[in-house]
């Protein structure tokens, strides 16, 4: 793994032909400062010690790996294990990188964190980091997602963050990123853009991946201790792709099969899914080159997912690179399959997953049925508190009242 991480990304932020930093002139110097600061403090004993202390005593890490015995028995075939990132402080993997971004902001002398959010989980994590480090927080969120994920909006506001509704376009994640970038452009000296996934201009795909690597490092050690071997299969949902890279990064040079699960949504018609790596083609979005769902004009296409955190037309450049190399298999789960997994995990294991994570659970259930005597490790990237009002209002309680 050491050679891989030293080689990718390159010094200018590329994973093969994907990545880079396509920036307006006024941001070039700022992003160079961010890169230099990160490369400096990420090697610092004091920074590493402080981040480890935060993870242990504030976040509650390590999160456990759990054998889902009743789910495995129900679906038959192979054994399903869950890396319980839903037990991380604030209920998702997002705090793994926002606490690192908060430390970076303090080092750079910034006064404010600015960010986008879809499902609201990244927004909550940014607001949490800002409160912890004594910084201001401004979170841009599409009006559609504000209504859909309102419990997380309340949490952001309780944590002291300013929530900015985004009212243009589809009013979801892509527009929230646009809005946050526009606001950041007006005052980059005082703010750090706390990007919420392994996307954006260099150094963010590297920076967020590195902070999320703790998931895979823990999981690899925990799984081996539990079973005496490494998992046969790894499964995680992919929108931007941070939780997936967090898990997958520790296993890239092993024999484990790796599956990134994209949202198939309602159908594979344009505008009814967000399966970027399955149906996209090369393009530039938000300052980096990657796979991109595009319309006839070559612009980012409208996308859809029942899970607001996966509702993005692009994907992290490292995922694009690993797809082309054939190391990761990118598959899909539909809304219907996701809802079935959501209800099933809730009732069978007493774990209510985020709709994003339920995509991974859905594919793991399918994979378990298709294989025998194998192990499947799923990154359960978040808990479903934020989704329960939306699900009950629109889908009820499933087939069992």
Summarize the structure.
This protein has helices spanning 2-7, 25-41, 45-59, 69-75, 95-108, 121-133, 143-148, 150-158, 173-186, 204-227, 242-248, 276-279, 317-325, 335-349, 355-370, 388-395, and strands at 14-15, 18-19, 65-67, 79-84, 112-117, 136-142, 162-166, 191-193, 233-237, 257-265, 281-285, 288-292, 329-334, 375-380. The protein is of the alpha/beta class. A six-stranded mixed β-sheet has the order 3-4-14-9-10-13, with helices on both faces. Strands 7-6-5-8 form a four-stranded parallel β-sheet, with helices on both faces. Strands 1-2 form a two-stranded antiparallel sheet.
Write the layout of secondary structure elements.
Blueprint (H helix, E strand, L loop, with lengths): L1 H6 L6 E2 L2 E2 L5 H17 L3 H15 L5 E3 L1 H7 L3 E6 L10 H14 L3 E6 L3 H13 L2 E7 H6 L1 H9 L3 E5 L6 H14 L4 E3 L10 H24 L5 E5 L4 H7 L8 E9 L10 H4 L1 E5 L2 E5 L24 H9 L3 E6 H15 L5 H16 L4 E6 L7 H8 L6
Parallel strand pairs: 4-14, 5-6, 5-8, 6-7, 9-10, 9-14, 10-13
Antiparallel strand pairs: 1-2, 3-4, 11-12
List key phrases describing it:
401 residues, Rossmann fold, alpha/beta, 14 strands, 2 domains
Protein structure class? alpha/beta
Q: Largest sheet at a glance?
A: 6 strands, mixed
- The CATH C-level class name of the largest domain: Alpha Beta
Separation, N- and C-terminal Cα atoms:
48 Å
Overall 3D shape? globular
Average the pLDDT over all residues and give the rounded result.
Answer: 96
Radius of gyration: 19 Å
Which strand-content bin applies to the residues? 15-25%
Percent helix among the residues?
Answer: 40-55%
| Tally of domains | 2
SSE order, one letter for each helix or strand: HEEHHEHEHEHEHHEHEHEHEHEEHEHHEH
Helical segment tally?
Answer: 16
Strands in their spatial order, largest beta sheet: 3-4-14-9-10-13
- What is the β-strand count? 14
Residue runs with pLDDT of under 50 for 5 or more positions? none
Q: Architecture of the largest domain in CATH? A: 3-Layer(aba) Sandwich
CATH topology (level 3) name of the largest domain: Rossmann fold
